[in-house]
Structures are given as structure tokens and as C-alpha cells.
Amino acid sequence: HVQLVESGGGSAQAGGSLRLSCVVSQYTNDQYCLGWFRQAPGKEREGVASIDRFGFMSYAGSVRGRFTLSRDNAKNTLYLQLNNLRPEDTALYYCAAGWKGGSCDYRYKGQGTQVTV
Q: Which DSSP helix (H) or strand (E) runs through 92?
């Protein structure tokens, strides 16, 4: 069972920056799919950024050019750098992992870290 623990959220002014971290408890095939999601009150969950086992990264259009995903395999840690923050970026951000049957299911999720802009 994979466990994920996020940190780094907080409050920032519009135009400011934050860096989120997600430590993954153990390396399994479920790390073939790692991603960040966010959910604001009253809104649907939104995929923010993801990375697959080949290192291919993808971003939601709303954050492309402002957010940057990276990973440190030695530390089993996934990062999300948030730059040029906007009020609409306010949400609970959480990371997820999960790979099953050759595709990503992101069935493992962390508790989340709050970002307020």
C-alpha cells in the first residue's frame, strides 16, 4: 500500500510562489503514474500536473507556464513549483499515485495541503 504525504502549502499573494512536496512511501509500479490534483470548495477535482514512468510530464492548461513538476527519485519525492499564483489557484492540493492494468488510476492519494492565494 503506497502512502503519500504532502507539504509546502500555505498562503501567498497573487504573483507569489510556493513549492509543494510529496513524499511517496515506497517504490512500486504505482509510481509509474504520479500526479498533482486540486479541489476548491464547490468545484470538481482538477488534474494539475502528472509524470509517467518515462518522465513525460503533462500540465493542465490553466497552470502551464506557471507550475513546474519535478521529481527526486533518490528521495522518492515529487515536487510542484507554483509561480505567478492567482486567486483561482486557491484549493486543496494533493498528490496521487497508481498504476494498474497498464494505465494510471491514481487510486492512492495523500491528505492534501492547502494553498490560499
A: strand 91-100
Q: Which three cell numbers stand for residue 65?
A: 507556464
Q: Name the more confident of 26 and 110.
A: 110
* C-alpha span between 86 and 101 (Å, rounded): 37
Cα distance between residue 25 and residue 11, in whole Å: 27
Do the beta carbons of residue 11 and residue 19 sit within 8 Å?
no
Residue among 6, 44, 35, 26 at smallest CA distance from 104: 35
Residues in the chain: 117
Q: Which cell is 113 given?
A: 495541503
> Nearest Cα to 62, choosing from 42, 95, 36?
36
pLDDT in tens, 40-59: 999 999 999 999 888 899 99
Position 51 scores a pLDDT of: 94
